[in-house]
């Protein structure tokens, strides 16, 4: 018998601190698998966010940097401009990319930086205990929208991917999901595309991944995936945006 | 090493000095009174083979410097007072991650939006952290355009040697004024002084992965990092303080001033000495580490007169250093006001 | 004919693999692992088709698949 599924070399063989059923675990592995398949582990530099994945560098077997909250795309812009021969990617949550970091996100995209961006959208601020995120759905209860997100008090969820797609500097944007194994494989294909675009110098590539946060959603892992399938993707439709 | 003489502004001299030091990355945002620096970098940095980015904010610029430095480049940003406030988070991260970086502050009047006239009211911000946490930046205060050029090169040397942020603290007068200076004949080349930094991010081929971070959750880990930083700062305090002093042997009143203020103080000192008054001067060139050993004067009847374009910031360091062993007086103006020779002379006469 | 090997010490008991195995070959264990979590067990009845859905959905990279 042949081993047909195994831990990628770019992922360390250590248990993670993520909650049971958390999407980070799946996406960390997908990124590592793509990096292995493209043979770029020794050239890759990853930038970790502030959020639950702040210690992503403890799980990935390649050069990594931390960045201040929201600033990953400024850090990545500079690393890539100084070392264009390396493959540079950021891994960011919804607060990092679309709240505090919105300015850095828009301008890196507008400058058309040749970067790969992995955007984990779980509609909540996980690490700090479950506050409203820019992508929290209307009606969704969080610790700062106790009665549910209200468009008058809290505004609408932010569709940053659709906004970025308007910029000429952006080359590729796709929204994918983790709510079943088929969708996970589609996510892997999108991640691979986003890395290949950088290798080919095609330009700014972003993959938005609808990801479960069972702990802050108050659902068990399977229910969380179903919530993405039944509610989240209605607000954030899947597919190629640019 | 033969040099050539050029006429140049303080802002541009800092940029030229940085390029001569092999600075290969600059990110900045326009703000008066340092716009000549970013314009010089826009024109000349690409010619040396380096990277120039006009960032979307001062906040983005300091984070770009973090990234460039993490990738092993000699990296720099510049701004003026309100923009430096924006950079504080980034500077704290740079200090915590032990990255080399050079930050230039051409001070203007504050607080808030203030005005575009010169000031020295960011001394606290520069020397007392400015950002959060127990860290320091080395602070260099040039007093002439020549010194601005020279210290720009020193700043990169110190930043790399100690792996920390270094600040060049100027003001609107120094930034804007033009003086003839001697500069190197060599054309600047990016990365000229760049040795491969073994800790930098370059892709993990042939080695274990490097991680650049300032986060340490494990029990005792952050304390260990802090102790390492404190040991570093102790070495710097012992080795790297710089100052200039004049006429301390027979001085009864010693003027203490830095940067542009020291030039005005020197003019006042000249006139007072011609009139037979025993006046001396201490000009700190490093504000952190503060040059404590310049103040070891045995004559207890000396009075120090601290003169600043502020309401008394370096004054506190002088008081701490003197520690009650001599009198310390103060003359200052802020919000764009500049103490004149006359004001200094009158104050000295009152003290004598 | 295929099989899986589960790293029971890394398993966090999210049970997503249990939901997605099309043959129902993964079961919740009554036992606890070293980390105090209910892990999952592979019921090797010889019916595994090596579809890899369990491994693909596992957030903790606990499952190796052989075919």
Describe this structure in words.
The complex is a heterotrimer of chains A (242), B (352) and C (67). By secondary structure, chain A is of the alpha/beta class. Chain A is 36% helix and 17% strand. Chain A has a 7-stranded mixed β-sheet, with helices on both faces. In chain A, strand 6, helix 7 (181-199) and strand 7 form a beta-alpha-beta unit. In chain A, helix 1 packs across helix 7. The model of chain A has no long low-confidence stretch (mean pLDDT 97). Chain B is α/β, with parallel strands linked by helices. Helices cover 39% and strands 21% of the residues of chain B. In chain B, strand 4 (75-79), helix 4 and strand 5 (101-107) form a beta-alpha-beta unit. In chain B, strands 3-2-4-5-7-6-13 form a 7-stranded mixed β-sheet, sandwiched between helices. In chain B, strands 10-12-11-14-15 form a 5-stranded mixed β-sheet, sandwiched between helices. The mean pLDDT of chain C is 96. Chain C has one domain (3-66): Alpha-Beta Plaits (2-Layer Sandwich). With 67 residues, chain C is of the alpha+beta class. In chain C, the strands form 2 sheets. Chain C has a two-stranded antiparallel sheet with strand order 1-4. Chain C has a two-stranded antiparallel ribbon with strand order 2-3. Helix content of chain C is 15%, strand content 30%. The A-B interface holds A 41-45, 47-48, 54-55, 57, 60-68, 71, 74-79, 81-83, 86, 103-104, 106-107 and B 24-25, 27, 51, 53, 55-57, 59-61, 63-68, 70-73, 75, 89-90, 93, 97, 201-206, 209-215, 217.
What's this, in brief?
Chain B contains eleven helices and 15 strands. With 352 residues, chain B is an alpha/beta fold. Chain C is of the alpha+beta class and 67 residues long.
Q: Record the strand order, biggest sheet of chain C.
A: 1-4
Largest interface, counted with CB-CB under 8 A? Answer: A-B, 34 and 40 residues
Distance between the termini of chain B: 46 Å
Give helix and strand order of chain B, one letter per element, not per position.
Answer: EHEHEHEHEHEHEHEEHEEHEEEHEH
Helix content of chain C: 10-25%
Number of strands of chain C: 4
What is the oligomeric state here?
heterotrimer
Q: What is the overall silhouette of chain C?
A: globular
CATH topology of chain C: Alpha-Beta Plaits
How many DSSP E strands of chain B?
A: 15
* Rg over alpha carbons of chain B: 20 Å
């Amino acid at each position: 018998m042949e081993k047909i599924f195994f831990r990628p070399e770019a992922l360390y063989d250590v248990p993670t601190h993520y909650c049971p059923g958390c999407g980070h675990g799946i996406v960390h592995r997908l990124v590592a698998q793509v990096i292995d398949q493209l043979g770029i582990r020794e050239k890759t530099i990853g930038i970790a966010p502030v959020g639950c994945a702040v210690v992503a560098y403890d799980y990935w077997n390649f050069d990594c940097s931390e960045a201040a909250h929201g600033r990953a795309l400024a850090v990545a812009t500079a690393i890539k401009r100084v070392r264009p021969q390396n493959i540079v990617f950021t891994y960011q949550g919804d607060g990092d990319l679309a709240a505090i970091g919105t300015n850095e996100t828009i301008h890196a995209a507008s400058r058309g930086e040749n970067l790969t961006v992995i955007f984990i959208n779980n509609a909540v601020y996980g690490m700090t205990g479950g506050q409203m995120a820019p992508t929290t759905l209307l009606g969704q209860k969080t610790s700062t929208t106790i009665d549910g997100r209200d468009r008058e008090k809290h505004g609408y969820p932010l569709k940053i991917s659709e906004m970025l797609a308007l910029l000429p500097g952006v080359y590729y944007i796709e929204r994918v999901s983790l709510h079943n194994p088929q969708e996970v494989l589609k996510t892997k294909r999108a991640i691979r595309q986003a890395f290949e675009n950088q290798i080919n110098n095609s330009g700014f590539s972003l993959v938005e991944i609808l990801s479960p946060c069972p702990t802050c959603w108050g659902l068990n892992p399977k229910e969380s995936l179903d919530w993405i399938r039944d509610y989240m993707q209605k607000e954030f439709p899947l597919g190629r945006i640019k | 090493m033969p040099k050539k003489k050029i006429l140049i502004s303080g802002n541009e001299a800092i940029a030229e000095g940085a390029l001569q030091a092999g600075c290969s990355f600059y990110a900045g945002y326009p703000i008066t009174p340092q716009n000549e620096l970013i314009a010089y970098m826009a024109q000349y940095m690409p010619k040396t083979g380096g990277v120039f980015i006009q960032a979307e904010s001062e906040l983005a610029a300091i984070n770009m410097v973090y990234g460039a430095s993490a990738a092993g480049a000699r990296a720099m940003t510049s701004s003026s007072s309100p923009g430096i406030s924006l950079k504080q988070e980034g500077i704290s991260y740079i200090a915590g991650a032990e990255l080399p970086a050079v930050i230039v502050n051409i001070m203007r009047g504050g607080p808030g939006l203030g005005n575009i006239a010169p000031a020295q009211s960011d001394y606290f911000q520069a020397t007392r952290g400015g950002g959060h946490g127990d860290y320091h930046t080395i602070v260099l205060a040039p007093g002439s355009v020549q010194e601005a050029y020279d210290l720009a090169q020193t700043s990169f040397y110190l930043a790399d040697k100690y792996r920390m942020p270094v600040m060049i603290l100027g003001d609107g007068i120094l930034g804007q004024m033009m003086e003839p200076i001697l500069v190197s004949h060599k054309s600047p080349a990016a990365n000229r002084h760049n040795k491969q930094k073994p800790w930098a991010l370059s892709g993990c081929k042939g080695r274990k992965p490097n991680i650049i971070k300032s986060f340490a959750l494990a029990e005792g880990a952050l304390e260990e990092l802090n102790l390492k930083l404190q040991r570093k700062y102790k070495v710097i305090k012992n080795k790297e303080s710089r100052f200039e002093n004049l006429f301390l042997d027979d001085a009864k009143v010693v003027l203490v001033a830095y940067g542009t203020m020291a030039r005005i103080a020197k003019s006042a000192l000249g006139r007072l000495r011609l009139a037979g008054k025993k006046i001396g001067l201490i000009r700190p060139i490093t504000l952190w580490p503060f040059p404590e050993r310049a103040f070891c004067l045995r004559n207890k009847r000396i009075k120090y007169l601290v003169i600043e374009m502020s309401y008394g910031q370096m004054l506190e360091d002088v008081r701490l250093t003197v520690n009650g062993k001599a009198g310390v007086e103060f003359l200052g103006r802020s919000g764009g006001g500049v103490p004149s020779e006359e004001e200094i002379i009158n104050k000295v006469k009152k003290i004598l | 004919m295929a099989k899986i090997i589960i790293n029971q010490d890394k398993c966090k008991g999210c049970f997503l693999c249990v939901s997605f195995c099309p043959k129902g070959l993964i079961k919740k264990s009554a036992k606890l692992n070293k980390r105090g979590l209910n892990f999952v067990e592979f019921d090797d009845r010889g019916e595994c088709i090596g579809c890899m859905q369990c491994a693909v959905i596992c957030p903790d990279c606990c499952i190796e698949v052989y075919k």
